[in-house]
User: Which sequence fits this backbone?
């Protein structure tokens, strides 16, 4: 980055990644402390160069596991974009009707949810309460689809479906659950299944076998936090 404060122009791909006399490490640690972030992985990209990739802090603060350049972080809400693309591919394929009730594709939904359409789930216009905000929810334990649904099943809809918009992880829980036909496997594998000519690289994580990486992709892409 070049600003008026710099006395000389830095070139793309420079090994010097300091900023106004401050090291990257110093700035990152300061930011992590201010935002109470336990760990992260940083890449400085100056295409086509990547002069620095490094992990800071912990990937698991409870077990004191250090973050590294190979840490597989949960994608969280970013996964919603991948899921939305997968649903639209199914729509283009004629396999999904966006204006059909989600209950036509996902079994055993609470009665008051059965009028909610696939389109409303995609738009966060369903009125479903967000399971992440319910008492008892914790990111530190594993949950089944049924358990997460149970956190909000008895709650009233926040508004009539289609009349407002409010982000809720419950929407994409229905679209990406193991019971959902929208995303029957990891997003990466699903995309390859639809577009068979597109190769997939399982060597992204150097420490994983192809089989382990497939499971890692599923956990990464379908997670909600």
Assistant:
């Amino acid at each position: 980055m070049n600003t008026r404060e710099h006395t000389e122009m830095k070139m793309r791909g420079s090994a010097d990644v300091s900023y106004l006399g401050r090291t990257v490490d110093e700035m990152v640690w300061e930011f992590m402390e201010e935002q109470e972030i336990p760990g992260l992985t940083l890449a400085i990209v100056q295409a086509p160069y990547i002069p620095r990739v490094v992990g800071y802090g912990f990937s698991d603060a409870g077990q004191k596991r250090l973050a590294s350049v190979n840490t597989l972080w949960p994608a969280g809400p970013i996964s919603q974009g991948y899921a939305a693309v997968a649903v639209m591919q199914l729509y283009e394929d004629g396999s999904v009707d966006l204006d059909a009730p989600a209950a036509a594709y996902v079994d055993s939904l609470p009665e008051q949810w059965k009028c909610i359409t696939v389109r409303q789930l995609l738009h966060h216009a369903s009125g479903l309460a967000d399971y992440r905000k319910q008492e008892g929810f914790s990111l530190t334990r594993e949950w089944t689809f049924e358990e997460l649904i149970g956190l909000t099943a008895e709650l009233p809809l926040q508004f009539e479906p289609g009349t407002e918009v409010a982000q809720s992880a419950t929407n994409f829980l229905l679209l990406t659950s193991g019971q959902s036909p929208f995303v029957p496997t990891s997003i990466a594998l699903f995309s390859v299944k639809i577009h068979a000519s597109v190769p997939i690289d399982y060597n992204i994580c150097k420490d994983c076998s192809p089989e382990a990486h497939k499971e890692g992709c599923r956990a990464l892409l379908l997670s909600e936090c």
Q: What stands out?
A: The chain has seven helices and three strands. The radius of gyration is 21 Å. Residues 184-189, 194-225 have pLDDT under 50 and may be disordered. Residues 79-92 form the longest helix (14 residues).
